[in-house]
Amino acid sequence: MKAIELQRCARVAIETCGSVRPKERVLIVTDTMRDQSVARALMAAALAADAEPVLMVMPTRRSTRRSRPRRFGLQCKRPTSPFCIRHIR
After folding, report:
1. CB atoms < 10 A from the CB of 33, how many?
2. If we measure between CA atoms, which residue out of 5, 1, 63 comes closest to residue 35?
3. pLDDT tens-digit profile of 1-25?
4. Which end of the chain is more exposed for a tag (fewer CB within 10 A), N or C?
């Protein structure tokens, strides 16, 4: 995906789909097997919306059936707008 299109899609995801408002906490979760440019674009869009984004990159596990890490809840500080990057082609 071209950078300009990716930025536009990230802006739509943050502003329209997520309805992110200024000063909201936004948690963006991805893993090491995903394209990090998507996470960075979401991060930039959240910053442009005057939100407070946090990017969490989790190591990829062999099994996807495992539950989230125990400390996950402590890391996110109750985000108002979580974004989880699961499958993007």
Report:
1. 9
2. 1
3. 688 999 999 999 999 998 999 999 9
4. C
Task: Give the chain's domains with CATH numbers.
Answer: 3-84 (3.40.1830.10)
Query: Reduced to 3 states, what is the DSSP secondary structure of residue 81?
Result: strand
Structure tokens at 86: 């699961």
Cα end-to-end distance, the chain, whole Å:
9
Q: Torsion-angle region of residue 49: left (phi > 0), alpha (psi -120 to 50) or beta?
A: alpha
DSSP state string for 5-71 = HHHHHHHHIIIIIS---TT-EEEEEEETTS-HHHHHHHHHHHHHTT-EEEEEEEPP-S-TTSPPPTT
pTM of the model: 0.71
12 CB-near residues (< 8 Å, 6+ apart): none
